[in-house]
Amino acid sequence: MHFVSGPCAELSFARKIRHFIQTMCSIFDRTIYPDPESEKAIMGSVVYCIHHKEGCQWSDELRKLKAHLNTCKHDAVLCAAQCGAMIPRVLMQDHLRYTCPRRRANCEHCAKEFSGSALEEHQGNCGHEPVYCENKCGAKVQRRHTQQHLQQHCSKRLVPCRHCGQRYTQDTVGAHGASCARAPVPCPQRCAAAPARDELDAHLRDHCAAASLPCAYRDAGCRFKGTRQALDRHIEESCQAHLALVCGVATRQARQLESLRSALAKLALNQSGALVWRISDFAAKMAEAKCKEGVELVSPAFYTSQYGYKLQASLFLNGNGAGESTHMSVYIKILPGEYDALLRWPFAHTVSFTLFDQSSTPDRACNMVESFVPDPTWKNFQRPSKEPDALGFGFPRFVSHEMLKKRNFVKDDVLFLRVKVDPSKIVAV
Fold it and tell me: Tell me, what's the pLDDT at 123?
């Protein structure tokens, strides 16, 4: 519903209607109905209230409209509080109570009385109005107490942990305390100390007076356990016993080491039937061989197969027998092996020696090769006893010293010699 408000409104809507009716009657009187009966006809016609669209159900003769408008609840009249607004009678109470600038009302929070405009300014600033905590803790407190709430009572306020000093919300600091690394915890050994949680292990290990500690020689076999004081007395009084335990451990470890060395040596053994022997520091070894008589170099042992014959090569750089002082001599020895009982004797496999020419041009390389087929009647090729043959079988004049100098058998002070047993000659039981 629309209405006119303000001190400048001179005529109400009803007055305008009355003025309109008087004007129309005057026109009818002068033109269409010049006789007196015409006015009676108009005034007797049935009309609706001008506020029919606003909900007024009144209808009657036109002459009664004026009287009706004086009481119609939808007709606008001046505000009873004289604020100047034109208000329909039906809305007057609401206007006086809620919207009239001259109304008087009490604040629902602090109960103080204000005029309408002052109340609007007061609302939203009243210190007694309950508001939600800005930290979103869910509490409602009077506006005047919000700072006190935030500082002293809010469950979301930040407070420091009294152990580590880190800041947490008040509703989580308790849960943090249950796991705080700096919070004191009772010693599990029930001593009088209460170390910090992150220092508990160090306390138990180094400081706890009630801890039951094992002897420092427990790995050697000592079973003693006791308090720190008792452990100190035990260490002082058990020197001889501890020494015996350590000696026993050392003996067992020595046996284990020997066993491991033996196993490692077996794993490292060449079982291919071919040995490439690298002789380094050739010049120094040749000089020693020329100065001393009978200087022999022996190669690593090798097998003809996994369960085959065990062999070893020997080398006399300054020669031996017929090649002494002029040639380099090479021999093969049969050593006692772990599987000799399963092998066929005498040894009957072809053996070849190859001295590699290390020429930078492979096409020009000329290796020195000698081989032999064992004579089954020779003692050297029978099953060896615990003491193998001192010399073995081979070539006392394998290669001359003069030939060693002419070709590239020695390069970078290194010589390579290959000893090979023909795999097709392996004979097993």
Answer: 75
Strands 46-48 and 59-61: antiparallel
Q: What is the DSSP string of 124-153?
A: TT-TTSEEE-TT--S-EEEGGGHHHIIIII
Between the alpha carbon of residue 397 and those of residues 242, 251, 428, 429, the distances in Å are 63, 49, 33, 36
Of the candidates 329, 325, 250, 304, the one whose C-alpha atom is nearest the C-alpha of residue 428 is: 304
**Alpha-carbon 10 to chain mean position:** 83
| 68-117 residue pLDDT tens | 877 787 888 888 766 878 878 877 778 777 778 777 777 878 878 776 66
Token pair listed for 62: 């036109």
pTM of the model: 0.45
Torsion of CA 61, 64, 65, 67, to 10 degrees: -170
Low-confidence ranges of the chain (pLDDT < 70): 1-44, 81-82, 115-117, 120, 388-391, 423, 425-429
CA distance 132 to 241: 77
Separation between Cα atoms, residue 27 and residue 42, nearest integer Å: 12
pLDDT of residue 255: 93
Whether 336 and 349 have beta carbons less than 8 Å apart is answered as no
- Residue 4: the pLDDT is 39
Instruction: Tell me 277's DSSP state.
Output: E
What angle is formed at CA 242 by the lines to CA 237 and CA 244, rounded to 5 degrees? 125
pLDDT at 116: 67
Q: Could you tell me if residue 295 is left (phi over 0), alpha (psi between -120 and 50 degrees) or otherwise beta?
A: beta
Place of tokens 């009294």: 162
Half-sphere exposure of 420 (CA within 13 A, CB side): 13
d(CA 289, CA 296): 8
The rounded radius of gyration (Å) of the Cα atoms in the chain is: 62
Decide: 157 and 150 in contact? Cβ < 8 Å: yes
| Helix 228-237 with 239-268: angle, nearest 10 deg | 80
Residue of 413, 334, 405 whose CA lies nearest to 376: 334
Q: Return the pLDDT at 408.
A: 93
Structure tokens at 96: 């006086």
Q: Which two tokens stand for residue 27?
A: 């026109």
